[in-house]
Amino acid sequence: MDKPLEVLVGEWLIRRGLKLAVAESCTGGLISHRITNISGSSNYFLGGVTSYANEAKLNLLGVSPETLEKHGAVSAETVLQMARGVCTALGANIGISTSGIAGPTGGTPEKPVGTTWIGFSSADGEEARHFLFQGDRLAIKGQAAEAALQLLADHLQVVNI
């Protein structure tokens, strides 16, 4: 691939006249950073919410307390609610979201360091993908941002949004 994912998804979003919003937890704004490194990204990127704490997920993105209680912050259910919530909050056609455990602390046997969920939501469908990334904190954050952009690219290439 000759172009970085953030360039490709920007071109596809412009071509389709779509607006993107991002809800980030474990990536801490890295996806938004990569997207806004591209000149002209204001034509398709509405903004992002870095919802690191559960309170932000609840209050800014509309994640339900029941979801956090039953499934935890790092779950398919949570990232889907985050992606939906950021679309609603910012008026976007497409939302992507991340939640994970970047380490080196915070892991459990059920959800070890590197466990990450990435969500996608649009009018044409939703998807949550599970990953187990390796490396230190910065490596895990970088891999999660790349995987989120890849999920977005996959949907923009295949789905008639």
Account of the 3D structure:
With 161 residues, the chain is α/β, with parallel strands linked by helices. It has a single domain, classed as Maf protein (Alpha-Beta Complex). The chain has 6 helices and 5 strands; from the N terminus they run αβαβαααβββα. It has helices spanning 5-16, 30-36, 54-61, 65-71, 76-90, 137-158; strands at 20-24, 45-50, 94-100, 115-122, 125-132. It has a 5-stranded mixed β-sheet, with helices on both faces.
Search tags:
single chain; 161 residues; alpha/beta; Maf protein; five-stranded mixed sheet; 44% helix; globular
Residues in helices, as a percent range: 40-55%
DSSP strand tally: 5
What is the topology, as strand order, of the major beta sheet? 2-1-3-4-5
- Count structural domains: 1
* Chain oligomer state: single chain
> In CATH's first tier, which class applies?
Alpha Beta
Radius of gyration (Å): 15 Å
Uncertain parts: none
- CATH architecture label: Alpha-Beta Complex
SS element count, helices = 6
Helix-strand layout with pairing:
Layout: H1 5-16, E1 20-24, H2 30-36, E2 45-50, H3 54-61, H4 65-71, H5 76-90, E3 94-100, E4 115-122, E5 125-132, H6 137-158
Parallel strand pairs: 1-2, 1-3
Antiparallel strand pairs: 3-4, 4-5
Helix pairs in contact: 1-6
